[in-house]
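note to self — DONT lose this again. spent like an hour looking for the file last time. sequence + predicted structure for the chain T wanted, 138 res
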Amino acid sequence: METIDIQRDGSFVHGRARSEVKYILDGQAIQDNFLSLDQHNQVVFRGLSIRSYNATSGKFQIVWVMPGHLGITDLEGEWKDGKLVSTGKGYDQYGEFVERFEYYDITEDSYSFRMDRSYDGGRTWIENFGRIRATRIR
């Protein structure tokens, strides 16, 4: 993955990451281990999401945690116009936030991702808080 993350000062940091995805709970949920890498391929940040589809609501339920860091995000997602669009809320070391993200340009072997975040209840947004361009490695 190629990543771009916005910093508190408004600058962007380009990086690389790896995602290891697998079905869990008898195929009823997906676990995604996200690993941000430094220039020597050493892991410098970890995140974990669990996604499951709720057939009653027709939406995905997603939880994101960052081991070793304060914070958690609780999201709900749905398919819209070929994109997986999600919204939710959580908290991190900077406080409570609302978040919106989407997976788009999805193919069998690649996807793009963008996330926006607001620390003031959605009055103002930090756009492109995180961006990813992912390509499958077989």
